[in-house]
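2024-03-11 09:14:02 INFO receiving multi-entity request
2024-03-11 09:14:02 INFO entity count = two
2024-03-11 09:14:03 INFO echoing inputs for audit
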Amino acid sequence: MITLDKITKSYDGKKKAVDNLSLEIYPGEIFGLLGPNGAGKTTCLKMITGILQPTAGEIAINGYSILSRPLEAKKQFSFVSDDPNVFLRFKGIEYLKFMADIYEIDPSVRESRIRELAEEYSLADVLNDQISSYSHGMRQKIVLIGALISEPPVWILDEPMTGLDPRSSFNLKNRMRQHADANLTVLFSTHVLEVAEKICDRVGIIDKGRLIFCGTIKEMRDHFKENASLEEMFLELTDESFHLPEDNNFPISH
Amino acid sequence: MKKWWILTKALVKGSDVFGLEMRESKKGKKLTLFSRGLDRTKKILLGMVIFAYMVFAFGINGYYVAKQLLAMGFDAGNPAADPALLAAFQASLTQLYLPGFFMLLGMGFFYAAGIFFFAEDLDTLLALPLKPSTIVAAKLANLYIFSLVIPLALTLPATVILGYMLGMSPIYYLYAFLTLIFGAVIPMCLDAILILLMMRTAVFAKSKDRFMIVTQVLMFIGIFAFVLSNMGSFNMDTELPTTGPVAFQYVVPMLNRAIEAISLPQNASSILKIMSLIAVALGLVILLVLLSSRLYLRAARESRATGHAHKPMTTKEWHSLRQTGKDLPNMVSREFKMLYRSPTFLMNILAFPVIMIISVFGTMAFSFLQKGQDLSSLKARMTIVFASESKETVLPIIFMVALGVTAFLSSTNTCMPTAISREGRGADMLKSWPLRISTVFLAKLFVGGIISLLAWLPLVIAVFVVLPFSIYFQPALLIIFVFLPLTVNNLAFIIDLNKPFLEWNSEQQVAKQNMNIFKSMLMSLVVGGLLVGAVLLAKKLGGDLIAVLAVISGGNILLFVASILLLNTVGKKYYLERVS
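2024-03-11 09:21:47 INFO inference complete, emitting structure
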């Protein structure tokens, strides 16, 4: 479970990249974070993962505060960043072994788990090559495998489908569903609304650092526009001229 | 011509000087060496400081040469009156021009490789409706604009000061300037032609790393060869050169003719000599542009061919996954792999501090030996110093020099001011893992410390072998050589944590165009200055040699401890707040 309590992030003391955002993401659900470019999605994910320090507010992952108990909190999740260009001088296999050590994965399951994931994402043949020789999609896959091998209770994925081929994308979506079905948590950001509509149990829409909607797609339709697609509702919600309905029941945060 | 001009302007504007890559920060500002983090006023001030420093540092040579020539009776109205003085004047001019051109030949090879072969923009440019000659000419213009900085900095201030002090005629300055700007074209063109020919015959994409290592090693050898070939070029009595570096005087064909013209500007034949240099330069440019259509386009396509066979995983390698590792050794091993697997980091971060220290002290040793001295005479001299009463006055000076030199040379270890910057955009991931900050810091400091100790070890051994044993001398010197580099490392790490340079596209940008390296050099001078100041204060307060040694030892250890405390507090705060 991920709990965000009134988190704010300001880089210059004036403009707020994230503004007083509260949110709870429960075990057993896939939560999609949506929003236009520069809305604050990545900043939000970076605060949850301890990369950025919030200016105000509190974040807890499975009850562990990322600020006061960072090590315990970080052992609860694995994170896939939006930039897969990491450890380019490492061989693929070295990176995965490194990640297995960092997350203290039991030696008895390491080999089988890495083999399984490497074959699933068609990387087994290139694990002996340096990551710098990989294509963008392959780099995304190796980072993804690195995050999945530890099988933590919470997955936090920033634009995880970017650069993936259709089969890998399909496999990842399946794994996300299986993870949630096992009563564990998946939080991911995406620009692909079709994906969000298809696999998310709930979505949160961020615009200009503020959470303007949080709930199920059905709730969005009920309170906003019946029979509309997520794309249509998203475009209207994030339009400059749009004003939130003066409806106390409009689901901003649950 | 119009397209050439449009392309040249675009390349110059978008250039990162040596890699031709457009770089933009998240805020949309262009990231360049001088613009990063500086407003307009600060940039102008920084530019003025750098300009003043260059005029002083490189111009002072011209001042001393002029002073010597004037003292020997040089007559600017009739330089040929004394053939010996004229020869000394011409040799001095050669010594002013040739190092700049030689540097350009060496560095230009890298620039040319970066601009013609390793350029990130090549794929875009090849797809545009442009003639190869237009691309080559625009790239050449770009290469020239940035390459000219080297001879302009190394040669121009000294040449102007020399001419002014000698009272040379205005034609001297015209010829000197023409020689500089056209002479610089020649090594640059030679580099470009060589790179194009190599591109045509070799698939560099597969061996880029090896290419970089081999050429950098060759460049260091070249610098050594240049220094060695220059030995014996100076008259010890007049301190003026009698000749240029023998092996390198043909780096720029017709330079000797141009030097004759500069030294005898009133001669009618001088204009022809300058014209001959200009003709060679323009001829090479034309040759290069003509060759481009035959060489460049095809070479650019073929040399970038990639693709290699994958090495499959063996059963043993799969089984190796069952072995576990601890965080700190893993992180240390990761740091070393990042450094030695990158030719840029290998040469500029791992090897450079060692090469720098060996070069500085090696050159000093050569010059010492050249003066007819030997090891036993040095030992004998030092024994006298240690035994005599003058040790109270001489040894503090030796220590102060050792403090200053150690502090500055330690800052040439760029492992720490780039420690976080090297992570690039991946620094984010580092913070999201369940790793203690102290583990990350220790791994980086361990690697920086190893490099420092390896760099200083040969010198420490040499000093301890050469200098006679003294109960006072050696522990204090050991403290200087061990604690001062580590203190400089710690502070340089804090500098990088404060403002890491993470938005880079090539490792060259981190290792060479990183302001944190310059900041850490300045910081090392402050640290050295503090310790030298403490020694001076101790002397002024009437302290004897024991007091001086206590100040040096205590000061070094105190600074080291303070730097550790600072790293543990401010450093950790910076890591949490600024590394993303």
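2024-03-11 09:21:48 INFO post-check: Chain A is about 35% helix and 25% strand.
2024-03-11 09:21:48 INFO post-check: Chain A has a mean pLDDT of 88.
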